[in-house]
Every structure is written in structure tokens, then in C-alpha cells.
Amino acid sequence: MFGDKMKILMTGHTSPMGKELYAHLVKEHEVIGVSRESGYDLTKQEDVEKVTDMALDSDIFINLAHVSSAQSQMLLMINNKWNKESRLFLTISFGSLATKLDNDILRAVNIDRQYLADKHKLDAVNNSLANQKPFGEQCQFTLVRVLNYGEKTGSREGEPTCNVDDIIRTVDYIISEPMYVGVLDIRRF
């Protein structure tokens, strides 16, 4: 499977990070982007269920769109519906390394508390799913926690940030790695 042309379902493909990742992956794979522009609203339960079913019929699901708790919800639904006949073998969700930072730092950068709560939930769900079954056939759940994507302005100007090449290199690594990768934390220093 690794290295072959794969069917990839991707949420968040219209975001700044998603556009670049989508453009890279579509060169070698069949990539289906899911967004409001393509008729899916992840604030609606019926669309979350449709996207989950689409993910199960893909080889890889890239769970990039942050829409409230939809990222976590889709992982739980995939886990509940997945079986050995499912095509899906890998989910890659994008979280935030902010979930591991000290509260003083988070206050200083004025992080959105709801965003942080949603990403904490994603951390917990991915950790639970990635570690529930140590061996055997299973869908792999990988979480990429990114600290700072894109250039920062104002008081945060000059902070080290990950760029599109970092994201692409990370996703390519996860897709091609035959071992189970549960969590990757990426940041510039």
C-alpha cells in the first residue's frame, strides 16, 4: 500500500496549510477535499456522518479542519465503524502543541480558550484510539501537533514558525512510514 497511488480524503483543504498540502498530495494521489465550498458543513451532524463514511472508503483521512469538536467526533465515529473490510488504514489529525504549553505562555499569547479546549479533546481522543490495541489489524490514528504555523505579526512577530515544507515533509513521512506513528510534535526553534 505504501508508495502506491492512494485515495485520500482531506478536510481543511481550503485553509492556508490545507491548500498547499492538497496541491502537493494531488500530484501523486487521488485527493478529495471536503469543505463548505464542496458542500459539507462540519457544524452539521449529518455532514460529519457523511464525511466519516467517506473516510472509511478512503485509504487515508487527513483531519485538518478545526470546526468545534468535529475533528474528535469524526475519529470516534471512524473507530466505531471501522472493520477489517474498511479501506481506511490511516488517519492523520492536526492538533496544536499549545496543548502542552504552560498556562502563562498561553495567556501571554492570548490563545482562544475554545480552540485550546477543542485541541485538548483531540489530544485525548487520539491518544485513547492510538493506544487501545497494541497489535493486529487496525486503523492507525496519528496526531500531528504543530506549534506556530505561518508568520506571526504584532507582539508575536519574529516567533519561529513551521512552514508548508515542514508540514509536507511530516505528512510524507507519516504516509510512507511502515511503523505506527501515534503522535508527532513539530516546531521550529
In words, what does this structure look like?
The chain has 189 residues and is of the alpha/beta class. It has one domain: NAD(P)-binding Rossmann-like Domain (Rossmann fold, 3-Layer(aba) Sandwich), CATH 3.40.50.720. Helices cover 38% and strands 17% of the residues. The protein has six helices and six strands. The protein has helices spanning 16-25, 45-56, 70-81, 103-108, 113-130, 164-176, and strands at residues 7-11, 30-34, 60-63, 90-96, 140-146, 183-186. A six-stranded parallel beta sheet has the order 2-1-3-4-5-6, sandwiched between helices. Helix 1 links the parallel strand 1 and strand 2 (30-34). Helix 2 (45-56) packs across helix 3 and helix 3 (70-81) packs parallel to helix 5 (113-130). The longest helix has 18 residues, at 113-130. The model has no long low-confidence stretch (mean pLDDT 93).
